[in-house]
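Hi L., both proteins are below.
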Amino acid sequence: MARMVVIKISSSFCFITMFSLVFTTNTTMSQPKYMFTFCNQLRDNFTSTALYESNRDTVLSNLRLRSSLASYSNATSGLNPNMVRGMFLCRGDISQTTCQDCVTTANLQIVRNCTSSDDEEAFIFYEECMVRYSDWSFFSVNEDRPYILRYAVTSAPDTVSFGLRLSEKMNELIGKVSNGSPTPYFVKDRERVIGFEGSYYMDSIVQCSPDLDQMNCTVCLRLAFQEMSGYCSQCQWAQIFTPKCLLRFETTSLGSPSIGSGSFNMKGKGIRGIVVPAVASLFVILIL
């Protein structure tokens, strides 16, 4: 099915589109759904050294090993100015095996995608997880850029009242996840909705990186929902993934299958992005 990808970026953003990508993975692994890679130069005088790359590889290796045990972890290797920090965050509704497969794939691909000697920071986003590394200490820091937003081109089952219901649901779940949920910083919800235009299920997820405190978790999620609402307040489904939190919702009309076609929106500043599209995709590039 054809899919439209919309990239909204600043004028300093350089994008690279790759229509083919070949890499070897274990065929027994589940294949995560790739979305985007951001490669970033933070300082004008930064040049990656062999020691920096070695520390990066150590961090990524440690993250891969830890992904078999948890849905979040961070790691550090080396001393300044070649110290590297890294983290991964998996969606809380996936299995530990799926999380490990996603992080393993992401660790291989992030190094292949960000090859410039100027790349001191990188993010790679899949639907199931996010992996990043950097030379600055981002632990416990709330960040709203870069983000990746994927959403349906089809409308929600009940367009009359859906926007208000979605806002109420997200506000409810953000309050729960920030004030002590059974699984730290993760809430999953399913609600059967009786709407003016038919009944449907609304499945929702809100999640924060555990290194955030409650206040920053709330801020992260509210900013993410604000961005999401600007593009898809009436969408059938959507997911936004930022460096420190994510929101996801999906509506399913009773008796109808879910639909998987959608659009993308990415936002970053001063970052190079790499898109690896699926076959039969349409790209619309908007430069601000």
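That was the first. Here is the second:
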Amino acid sequence: MVAVSSTQFPRGNSEKALEEFRVKMVLEMKKVHKDLAAINHCMGKTFASRRNEIVSSSPAITTVESRWPALFLQAQNCAEFKQITNRNLLQLLNLSREKQFGKFGHHLSAILKMYDTNVQAKDVSILRTAAIHCLPALLDECDSEVFKVCEEAELRTLESSDCPICILSIAPKDEEGNVLFLQPSPVYIILEGRMVTSSL
């Protein structure tokens, strides 16, 4: 990932102005009835400064939670993903179809076959899950440490050391005992051994 320099801040916005947007977002996140439109506006304005801060200083997850709490909202997860990759989930899935012959081609093919089997359900969560599972393979990375799947009963006994950084899916099994990982409910993001986002 390439760090965004301060010269790439939105035109007409100084570092001080962007900090004011950040503070406004933090205050809005503390409200019971949040103004999501205002939060979206603030997060959009501060994207460059946020990426620069996170990439250049690699802050602890507790610091990110404190300074950028909206980043852990489901809508902001999706918005941040699109800002960074410049692709939506359907485009990512289509790219996966073009890359089925690389190092992890067999893995992509298995995911896409499972997605195509379930596509008639027209469930956006299935699209999202399939696209995210394809992402490591597109980057020529093994996903065994990125994605963890367990049943609801196993969640209570899961140790933080088992998955210090991962996307944890609570997924059902079919009649033959196979995990239906494209139909998880819910999904948790775990960073530094802490559950930072749930019920995605």
